Amino acid sequence: MGDSQCDEKEESLNESQIDTKYETTRIASFKDFLDLSKYTYSPSNTNEHENTKIAWQTSNHLENSDSLRKVSNRECLIFSKNHSLGKRKKRKREILSCSVFPNTKQCHTTITGDTSKYASSKYASFPELRDVLAPNLICIFIGLNPGLTTSISGHAYAHPSNLFWKLLHSSGCTPRRCRPAEDAELPNLYALGNTNIVSRPSRNSNELKRAELDAGVSALEDKIRMYKPEAVCIVGKSIWESIWRTRHGGNISKCLFHYGWQDESERMGVEKGKCSSWKGAKVFVACSTSGLAANMKLIEKESIWRELGIWVEERRKLRSEQFQEAADLIKRTKLNQL
């Protein structure tokens, strides 16, 4: 009995060892603990991959949009200093539409298209500057075009950096320094006027095309012919170059260009084929008064303008004497009638 019991114990022990060994083998194989089929590639995972890719792109785009909106907001803040609330909101929408979605067709056309067309549409909401003209003035000043500050204020040469009003006074064209808001009073006060070769506003002269300047010469001649001033002052070399190019069919050479009074044959507004006491307006070419025109020192600009100022002072003095004589004659006539 003892041997049989021992044999039974040994068999049960061996079985238990086999069971234990088997269990250990089962655990080591990770069977029923890890389903590798879940991690194998199959076409069913394609949508999940695409969704992940789209989610990443959307997240990346939103991050870029946030940063671009910060830039756009800063640009809008700077722009708002010189614009009304309605224009500021419109401008803000334009900046955001181009900045946040830089690959759109509209923005691509804006950047790579004709810059003059872009500038024209960009400032389409800015009003043009009215002419300050009257018949038989001593001198009409012809500028390039209104800047944005001038357009918004409605007064000529309104930007603080522009030297027009300073040079007008220092040259003697006006006996005191006038403010831009007084531009409409120039004809009555000093027999002076103002107009531009291009009517539409822009931020700077680089946004104007040569053809655009040339196209304005004809209208300019018509204005001078209508109001018949004694002289015109061309405020800037580029304006005279455009007038010359239109008249002579080519660019003016360096040896022919000069500031100051031009040849008598270059008078503006001449009525061809008509006998008239008015022979056209004398032409004086002055340097630009823009704050961006830094190619000359102030003393050089004052010297050019002073030549015009001397002539204007003489003409105003003569007119004043003639007016006084006319007034005295009228007074004597009335006394004789009594």
What this model shows, in words?
- This protein is an alpha/beta fold and 338 residues long.
- The N and C termini lie far apart (176 Å).
- Helix 2 runs antiparallel to helix 3.
- About 23% of the residues have low confidence.
- The chain folds into two domains: 62 residues; 187 residues, Uracil-DNA Glycosylase, subunit E (3-Layer(aba) Sandwich).
- A five-stranded mixed beta sheet has the order 2-1-3-5-4.
- The protein has twelve helices and five strands.
- It is globular, with a radius of gyration of 41 Å.
- Helices cover 53% and strands 7% of the residues.
Overall 3D shape? globular
Task: Note the run of SSEs as H and E.
Answer: HHHHHEHHHEHHEHEEH
Class by SSE composition = alpha/beta
Helix proportion range:
40-55%
CATH H-level name of the largest domain... which superfamily?
Uracil-DNA glycosylase-like domain
Q: Could you tell me the radius of gyration in angstroms?
A: 41 Å
If you average the pLDDT, what whole number results? 77
Give the biggest sheet.
5 strands, mixed
CATH C-level class of the largest domain: Alpha Beta
How many separate domains make up the residues? 2
Distance between the termini: 176 Å
Spans of at least 5 consecutive residues with low confidence: 15-27, 48-85, 89-116
Strand order of the largest sheet: 2-1-3-5-4
CATH architecture of the largest domain: 3-Layer(aba) Sandwich
Query: Helical segment tally?
Result: 12
Percentage beta strand: 5-15%
Q: What's the CATH topology label of the largest domain? A: Uracil-DNA Glycosylase, subunit E
Per DSSP E runs of 2 or more residues, the count of β-strands stands at 5
